[in-house]
Amino acid sequence: MLTSLSIKNYALIEEAQLQLNEGFTVITGETGAGKSILLGALGLITGKRADSSSAGDMTAKCIIEGIFEVSGYQLQSFFKKQDLDYEDATIIRREILPSGKSRAFINDTPVTLAQLAALGERLVDIHSQHKTLDVLDNAYQFEVLDTFANALALKEKYSEQYTLWKEKLVQLQQIQEKKQRAQLEFDYQSFLFTELDEAKLIEGEFEQLETELKTLSHAEEIQENLATAQQKLAQDELGIMDQLSEARSALSRISGFGTEYEALYNRIHSVFIEVDDLTEELSDLASNVDADPLTLEKTNTRIQVLYNLMKKHQVDSVSELIAIRERLDNELYEVQNVDEQIAKMEKEIAFAKAEAQKIAVQLHEKRAKAIPKLKASIEKILVELGMPNAHLPITVTSLKELAPNGQDGLEFLFSANKGMDAKPLGKGASGGELSRVMLAIKAVLSRHKKLPTLIFDEIDTGVSGEVAVKMGAILKEMGNTMQLISITHLPQIAGQGASHFKVFKTDEAEKTKTKIVRLSTDDRIVEIAAMLGGNSQTSAALEHARNLLN
Fold first, then answer.
1. Helices 219-234 & 240-254, crossing angle to 10 degrees?
2. 54: which residues sit within 8 A by CB, 6+ positions away?
3. Which segments of the chain belong to CATH 3.40.50.300?
4. InterPro entries annotated for this entry (predicted)?
């Protein structure tokens, strides 16, 4: 419930601070005094859009702040989901800067307008003339019936199962579409896979073949130069090996005469061994060079096969071709086994639907059982509201298929007079009658569910006399189980409020301001007397006002 409302620099309100209580609160004031401004301020902290014109002083910031006691609304999961700090006394603040930029905060954490609206609709229900159309909405009618039937938990369970069923239907459709696309491409994909599979791809093969090709293409030149190098090293008498051998022998003979000679001998001996190894390697390489034209042709052919595959698949390596082969293999496997997936999904869909249908049957039974009592409860209140012949049939029918609200079709009908056939509520009730039907429904709901703070904006339009007294009594009774605020111009309703605020205008320093004050008991008597008889407060009017308060 709303415990405190602070308004600074909003429209004609320079500053106002309202402390609100549980129960039924009335707000009165002359036409044009600014009661709608109060609703506008409430709208801002519940997520309505704003602009810079909201501020009274365009050079200063406009601030609206409300404190809500939310402990009874089970909102912990909402706060967690929105990553907000939960507090039993939750503070909502809206700021509008001179630039027109708007900021919103929940418990001092910045939030988006969507987050603010999502919380606001759970905390405040502002009921104006256009809001009466809610009662014509089929989803709202289901909510009313399910609340009265104590079936909200069952409805939530159904919604989860219905959503699961619909999701699986979408998944099945996606698999079937994938199968259809895959079947159209299956032959080509299969050809691509076979082509790559038969190529016997080996990681790094292309690079290795390129090296072999260079060798094979220049085999004679390589052999010739290897032979020349070997000859220069190992030629008898003139070769390097013979000369190194003679030099090594010479140094061997003096190596014992000093360390410096020994070092020279060791070095030339190392060179001799290295050159000897090099000679052997030249010989081996020369013998391994294959100048066979057939081998050259096979290597060329293999390179061309790999190159064509890489060009075809627009890749740069054999490893990428291998990855494509594996992907194609997996996709072909999925296509070949998609019927198994479809069969499995169809079983899951059938099970999910059967479970949803079981719950839908339970919902239908609860609703059918509750309808007579709901109808009687609403009609009883409508009689008190001056509609003695009001008739509100509620019909529930079975649908062939599951729907978001179960397997039921629901319709609220209405007839205001005897001898008239009941028609759908939107066609059978006038605007004033719809307002009374909505009030009756809200009154019934308040006995079965903790409703958000309910604000009625002149719901008493077109009402007077004894009906107004009855309406006031109904609002007062609703205030026993919820916080209810009514902006009213009827003294019969104003007298029923547990708390009373007055909205009025003053002219200060050539500037008009709207102010809101809580009235004491004596002030209420004067205000209600003025509502009864105008500014001339006769003793009869004052006495009548006291009677209304009592």
1. 30
2. 10, 11, 40, 44, 62, 96
3. 1-128+458-519
4. DNA_recomb/repair_RecN, P-loop_NTPase, RecF/RecN/SMC_N
CATH superfamily of 1-128+458-519: P-loop containing nucleotide triphosphate hydrolases (3.40.50.300)
Query: If you write DSSP's letter for every residue of 458-526 in order, what string do you get?
Result: STTTT--HHHHHHHHHHHHHHTTTS-EEEE---HHHHTT-SEEEEEEEEEETTEEEEEEEE--HHHHHH
Q: Which helix (H) or strand (E) holds 516?
A: strand 511-518
| Amino acid symbol at 317 | S
Closest by Cα among 171, 80, 166, 66 to 120? 66
Close Cβ partners of 252 (under 8 Å, ≥ 6 residues apart): 265
Are 494 and 28 spatial neighbours (Cβ–Cβ below 8 Å)? yes
**CB contact set of 275 (below 8 Å; sequence gap of 6+):** 233, 240, 241, 244
Rounded distance between C-alpha atoms, residue 178 and residue 261, angstroms: 85
Walk along the chain (550 residues) and give the pLDDT tens digit of each residue.
Answer: 999 999 999 988 889 999 999 999 999 988 777 787 888 889 899 998 877 677 778 888 999 999 999 988 889 999 999 999 999 999 999 999 888 888 999 999 999 999 999 999 899 988 876 556 678 889 999 999 999 999 999 999 999 999 999 999 999 998 888 877 777 676 677 788 888 888 888 887 777 766 666 665 555 566 666 666 666 666 665 667 777 777 787 778 777 777 887 888 888 788 888 887 887 777 777 666 665 666 667 777 777 878 888 888 888 888 888 888 888 888 777 777 778 888 899 999 999 999 999 999 999 999 999 999 999 999 999 998 888 999 999 999 999 999 999 999 999 999 988 878 888 888 877 777 888 888 899 999 888 888 889 998 878 777 778 888 899 999 999 999 899 999 998 999 999 999 999 999 888 877 888 899 999 999 999 999 988 876 667 788 888 888 888 7
